[in-house]
């Protein structure tokens, strides 16, 4: 009952990878090193370019400031282009400095709020230098104890800070506001859910959109519903894709719950977001114990497989079954597509496009991992979770 999608449809997929996936990361218990870990942003981009070379799916690389601060952003841009990729979303970071202990854009002290706004203005300058469209803001702001600060006043300060940042954007740039229900704050978070992110981005204007990170919801949340709703409202700017078992685990996408990934991609396609450059698919993952470049290759291939399954849904038959209120038939049609082994069709697609039919095997056989392990000593740390 599943249908065969066209190669043209399949080929619309674009996934952005993130620079921090290539650095060493870990938990607060331990950061394990990996031989060959990049020592600077240039090497992170070189590793990301390997993912694109192997899969043809990942032409852009998100960066995080200050983790990827360099002296010459034009050089970073040219370096990426020389390797066949481009710099992607610029992520701000107001969660690692002492000043931000009690918040950044929401901090009670105007001096800290000003500093946080200025950091975002620096990010916008970096976007201009690197030819980037999107500024992604995730705030660690929140409180740990009831009464610690005024929830209402913090919302007002947040609105003010976001407006100052938004006002600095060029006409072709976007502000993307990411939400997360908890961590590092444990009582309340200032942007905890899609509703809050939606309310602020609506107030800001057309150039402001919501980021949905799949790891940022309470267990049991129906994420595909949020996808459908934000697409209806024209406010879904980007995804951060990853897997989770417990909290914000940042594991390889599609490995904890492949069916959830399929359901999310189904709503993306149904809502017209697939192939739309205004709805970015970004990987936000950390590879604490597995090899990083292969971990990223596995991730983009998992997204590709989920999308290929969704494109195999017989949408006409599904619409008819839904009209008829034929519950079991409608579910059967969906599950048929989910159960399709799409790997042969994707191997064909790759062959037709001059890509390795088995990207993982091709990469592992290339000798790249052995080469960087020899050449690079003393890799950078990617995350704050040490
Ligand atoms: C926060 C987050 C956000 C950050 C990234 C490193 O948990 O998802 O997107 O920028 O992790
Ligand atoms: Mn994220
Ligand atoms: Mn996260």
Describe the fold and architecture:
It is built from 14 helices and ten strands. By secondary structure, the protein is α/β, with parallel strands linked by helices. The protein has a single domain (9-312), classed as TIM Barrel, CATH 3.20.20. An eight-stranded parallel sheet has the order 1-2-3-4-6-8-9-10. α8 links the parallel β9 (236-241) and β10 (280-283). The radius of gyration is 21 Å and the shape is globular. The N and C termini lie far apart (49 Å). The site of one manganese (II) ion (MN) has 5 residues, from loops.
Helices and strands, with pairings:
Layout: H1 7-10, E1 16-18, H2 41-55, E2 60-64, H3 73-82, E3 86-91, H4 110-130, E4 134-138, E5 142-143, H5 151-167, E6 174-178, E7 188-189, H6 194-204, E8 208-213, H7 223-232, E9 236-241, H8 258-270, E10 280-283, H9 292-311, H10 315-323, H11 327-338, H12 343-352, H13 359-365, H14 368-375
Parallel strand pairs: 1-2, 2-3, 3-4, 4-6, 6-8, 8-9, 9-10
Antiparallel strand pairs: 5-7
Helix pairs in contact: 2-9, 2-13, 4-5, 7-8, 8-9, 10-11
Bound molecules: 6-deoxy-beta-L-fructofuranose and manganese (II) ion (2 copies).
